[in-house]
Specification:
With 344 residues, this protein is an alpha+beta fold. It has 9 helices and 19 strands. Strands 12, 13, 16, 17, 18 and 19 form a 6-stranded antiparallel sheet that branches. The two termini are 17 Å apart.
Length: 344
C-alpha cells in the first residue's frame, strides 16, 4: 500500500507520537509511507491534488527514532493524492489556530479531493467537518455528559458557576493539549474574568461541571471502527495522572500514564457513541472519560498510544495497520461498501 499521513509539520513529529508508531509499523510491513505537512498541498488547473511529501526509506523501520530522523532528512517529493491507497488525517487543527489559522482546515479541505478520487481517507473529512470542536459532544446523550455551557458572555459563565455545586472547568471550544484550561473553585471566582478573557481570545468558552473523580486523572479510551480498540485481547486504554499541583490531565502538561482496565461504564459509553461515530466515518478516536461521564471526543489526531506502549500497555499499531490492510484489500476487490466504517 501507499499510505499518506497528514501532519501539522515535519519538525514537530516525535518518536513517541501515535502517528510515528503507525507509520513505523506500516513501513516495517513493506508499505510505502508518505508524510504530508498541511502547508505542502497543491492543486492544478486539472483539479489534481498533490502534496510535496516526505518519504522515509524502508531502512528507517527499525525504530520510531530512526523513522523520525530519516523523515527530517528526506527531500520533499511531489505525490499525487489520487495515487495513495490510504490517507490518514493526523494533523491537529487546534495547533494552528494562533500562528497559522489558514492551515487549520487545509488537511480536511485537500483530503476531500483524495476521497473523491477513491482514496480511503481516515478519518472521513466530511465527518471531521461535523466534529470541528468540542461542541460536537453536545450531540451525544445528556446522561453521559457533564453539565455544560457554551457561550461568549462572562455573566453567563458566572451564573453557571453559581448554579453548579462545587467547581467548574472552563476551556476553549476549539482548544487542545490543555491550553487555557482552568479549574475554577469558589476561591478562584475573583479571577474568573481574567480566565474567561484568555479563552475568549480563541473563540467560545466551554464551561463544564468539575467531576470530583477527575482529581485522580481521566481515562483515554481508544475506539477504532466505532469499537474499543482491541490489541490481541488487551484494550487500548490509558489513565492520565496529573502531576503534583496540576489540575489538567493532559500528557502535554506533564501527566503520567499507566495502562488501565476497561470498566463496564466505559463499555457503555462506547456503545452509546458508536452509532454517531460510524455515521460520521470516524475510524480512530479517543474518548476522555471520568467515571461514567464523557468529557471529550478526540477525532483529530487522537494521541497517547506511544505513551501507552512505553508504560507497559499494548502496542496498538499492528491492529490499526491490520485494519488499513483489510480496508484496502476489500476496496481492491471492488466490494467497498457505502461508508468507511461499514467493515473492518
Amino acid at each position: 500500500m501507499r499510505i499518506g499521513f497528514v501532519v501539522n509539520d515535519i519538525a514537530g513529529e516525535t518518536a513517541g507520537y501515535t502517528t510515528t508508531l503507525i507509520a513505523r509499523e506500516a513501513l516495517a510491513r513493506g508499505h510505502a509511507v508518505f508524510y504530508l505537512p498541511v502547508d505542502a498541498f497543491s492543486l492544478g488547473g486539472d483539479d489534481v491534488a498533490a502534496a510535496h511529501a516526505r518519504r522515509p526509506p524502508r531502512e528507517a523501520a527499525g525504530s520510531t527514532e530512526a523513522l523520525v530522523a530519516a523523515l527530517r532528512e528526506a527531500a520533499p517529493e511531489r505525490v499525487g493524492l489520487a495515487g495513495l491507497d490510504v490517507l490518514m488525517l493526523r494533523n491537529d487543527p487546534a495547533e494552528d489556530v494562533g500562528a497559522r489559522p489558514w492551515a487549520r482546515l487545509a488537511g480536511v479541505s485537500f483530503a476531500r479531493f483524495a476521497a473523491e478520487a477513491g482514496v480511503i481517507v481516515l478519518n472521513d473529512p466530511d465527518g471531521l467537518a461535523r466534529n470541528l470542536d468540542k461542541l460536537a459532544l453536545e450531540h451525544y446523550p445528556a446522561e453521559i455528559r457533564p453539565r455544560s455551557l457554551v457561550t461568549r458572555e462572562l455573566d453567563e459563565v458566572r451564573a453557571f458557576a453559581d448554579e453548579t455545586e462545587g467547581a467548574i472547568v472552563i476551556k476553549p471550544l476549539a482548544g487542545s493539549g490543555g491550553r487555557n484550561v482552568f479549574l475554577v473553585r469558589s476561591e478562584d471566582r475573583t479571577n474568573l474574568k481574567q480566565m474567561v478573557r484568555a479563552i475568549l481570545a480563541e473563540g467560545y468558552v466551554l464551561a463544564q461541571e468539575a467531576l470530583p473523580e477527575a482529581a485522580g486523572g481521566d481515562v483515554r479510551l481508544f475506539l477504532m471502527n466505532g469499537r474499543i480498540l482491541d490489541c490481541d485481547g488487551r484494550a487500548a486504554a490509558l489513565r492520565r495522572i496529573p502531576k503534583g499541583g496540576e489540575a489538567r490531565a493532559n500528557i502535554s502538561q506533564g501527566a503520567g500514564v499507566e495502562p488501565v482496565e476497561v470498566s463496564d461504564a466505559m463499555r457503555r459509553l462506547a456503545d452509546l457513541v458508536r452509532p454517531r461515530l460510524v455515521a460520521d466515518g470516524l475510524f480512530l478516536v479517543g474518548l476522555d472519560v471520568v467515571g461514567d461521564k464523557l468529557l471529550e471526543i478526540n477525532v483529530f489526531s487522537p494521541g497517547g498510544l506511544g505513551r501507552l506502549a512505553a508504560a507497559g500497555g499494548p502496542d496498538a499499531a499492528p491492529a490499526i495497520v491490520d485494519a488499513l490492510e483489510r480496508k484496502a484489500a476489500i476496496k481492491a476487490r471492488g466490494t467497498w461498501p457505502n461508508g468507511l466504517l461499514a467493515t473492518l
